[in-house]
Amino acid sequence: MKKLHLLLLIAFLSLPLAALAEDDGEKIFIVQQYSYDPGESDGNREIGLSLCGTRCNALSGNFASYLKPGGWRLIRSASNQEVALELDYPFIKGRCICVGDEYRVKWYDPVCTENKP
Asked: Which of 43, 54, 78, 92 is 20 to 30 A removed from 114 (C-alpha atoms)?
Protein backbone atom coordinates (compact mmCIF):
# COMPACT_ATOMS: atom_id res chain seq x y z
CA MET A 1 0.00 0.00 0.00
CA LYS A 2 2.86 2.38 0.82
CA LYS A 3 4.42 1.70 -2.58
CA LEU A 4 1.16 2.62 -4.29
CA HIS A 5 0.96 5.90 -2.34
CA LEU A 6 4.57 6.68 -3.20
CA LEU A 7 3.95 5.93 -6.88
CA LEU A 8 0.85 8.14 -6.91
CA LEU A 9 2.78 10.94 -5.20
CA ILE A 10 5.58 10.76 -7.77
CA ALA A 11 3.05 10.74 -10.63
CA PHE A 12 1.19 13.71 -9.11
CA LEU A 13 4.38 15.74 -8.66
CA SER A 14 5.54 15.03 -12.21
CA LEU A 15 2.35 16.42 -13.80
CA PRO A 16 3.42 20.10 -13.59
CA LEU A 17 6.80 19.21 -15.10
CA ALA A 18 5.15 17.38 -17.98
CA ALA A 19 2.81 20.31 -18.63
CA LEU A 20 5.76 22.68 -18.54
CA ALA A 21 7.66 20.58 -21.07
CA GLU A 22 4.70 20.55 -23.48
CA ASP A 23 4.39 24.33 -23.84
CA ASP A 24 7.66 26.18 -23.42
CA GLY A 25 6.31 29.36 -24.99
CA GLU A 26 8.46 31.85 -26.83
CA LYS A 27 11.85 32.74 -25.35
CA ILE A 28 13.08 36.32 -25.18
CA PHE A 29 16.25 37.89 -23.85
CA ILE A 30 15.95 41.16 -21.91
CA VAL A 31 19.26 43.01 -21.85
CA GLN A 32 20.50 44.63 -18.65
CA GLN A 33 23.90 45.81 -19.85
CA TYR A 34 26.23 45.55 -22.80
CA SER A 35 29.83 46.33 -23.65
CA TYR A 36 32.15 46.42 -26.65
CA ASP A 37 35.37 44.42 -26.81
CA PRO A 38 37.55 45.50 -29.76
CA GLY A 39 39.77 42.44 -29.41
CA GLU A 40 42.88 42.70 -31.57
CA SER A 41 41.37 45.38 -33.80
CA ASP A 42 41.78 49.06 -33.07
CA GLY A 43 38.08 49.86 -33.46
CA ASN A 44 36.55 53.10 -32.27
CA ARG A 45 35.07 52.39 -28.83
CA GLU A 46 32.20 54.88 -29.17
CA ILE A 47 31.04 53.48 -32.51
CA GLY A 48 31.50 49.92 -31.25
CA LEU A 49 29.49 50.62 -28.11
CA SER A 50 26.73 52.23 -30.16
CA LEU A 51 26.56 49.25 -32.51
CA CYS A 52 26.58 46.86 -29.56
CA GLY A 53 23.68 48.75 -28.01
CA THR A 54 21.68 48.25 -31.18
CA ARG A 55 22.66 44.60 -31.58
CA CYS A 56 22.08 43.66 -27.93
CA ASN A 57 18.75 45.46 -27.65
CA ALA A 58 17.60 43.72 -30.85
CA LEU A 59 17.78 40.46 -28.88
CA SER A 60 14.89 41.75 -26.74
CA GLY A 61 12.54 42.15 -29.69
CA ASN A 62 12.44 38.60 -31.05
CA PHE A 63 8.84 37.98 -30.00
CA ALA A 64 6.70 39.31 -32.86
CA SER A 65 3.10 38.90 -31.68
CA TYR A 66 2.78 41.65 -29.08
CA LEU A 67 -0.72 42.54 -30.26
CA LYS A 68 -2.50 39.38 -29.13
CA PRO A 69 -5.38 40.32 -26.79
CA GLY A 70 -5.08 39.42 -23.13
CA GLY A 71 -1.72 39.74 -21.53
CA TRP A 72 1.71 38.22 -21.19
CA ARG A 73 3.36 36.28 -18.42
CA LEU A 74 7.13 36.46 -18.29
CA ILE A 75 8.65 33.47 -16.55
CA ARG A 76 12.38 33.86 -15.88
CA SER A 77 14.28 30.81 -17.09
CA ALA A 78 17.84 32.15 -16.67
CA SER A 79 19.36 35.26 -15.15
CA ASN A 80 22.57 37.16 -15.84
CA GLN A 81 23.33 35.21 -18.99
CA GLU A 82 26.15 36.46 -21.18
CA VAL A 83 25.76 36.39 -24.95
CA ALA A 84 28.65 37.32 -27.25
CA LEU A 85 27.93 38.68 -30.73
CA GLU A 86 30.66 39.16 -33.32
CA LEU A 87 30.99 42.51 -35.09
CA ASP A 88 32.45 41.87 -38.52
CA TYR A 89 31.98 45.08 -40.48
CA PRO A 90 34.56 46.50 -42.90
CA PHE A 91 35.00 49.59 -40.71
CA ILE A 92 34.88 47.98 -37.25
CA LYS A 93 35.61 44.56 -35.81
CA GLY A 94 35.33 43.07 -32.34
CA ARG A 95 32.52 41.61 -30.32
CA CYS A 96 29.56 42.72 -28.26
CA ILE A 97 28.99 41.25 -24.84
CA CYS A 98 25.32 41.35 -23.85
CA VAL A 99 24.25 40.49 -20.29
CA GLY A 100 20.61 39.88 -19.50
CA ASP A 101 17.85 37.57 -18.36
CA GLU A 102 16.10 34.95 -20.46
CA TYR A 103 12.34 34.65 -20.10
CA ARG A 104 9.66 32.34 -21.42
CA VAL A 105 6.68 34.32 -22.67
CA LYS A 106 3.25 32.81 -22.20
CA TRP A 107 0.03 34.32 -23.39
CA TYR A 108 -2.25 35.02 -20.44
CA ASP A 109 -5.97 35.55 -20.89
CA PRO A 110 -7.62 36.37 -17.55
CA VAL A 111 -11.05 35.45 -18.96
CA CYS A 112 -10.03 31.96 -20.05
CA THR A 113 -9.96 29.60 -17.06
CA GLU A 114 -7.44 27.19 -18.56
CA ASN A 115 -4.71 29.89 -18.56
CA LYS A 116 -5.21 30.99 -14.97
CA PRO A 117 -2.23 30.30 -12.70
From this structure: 78
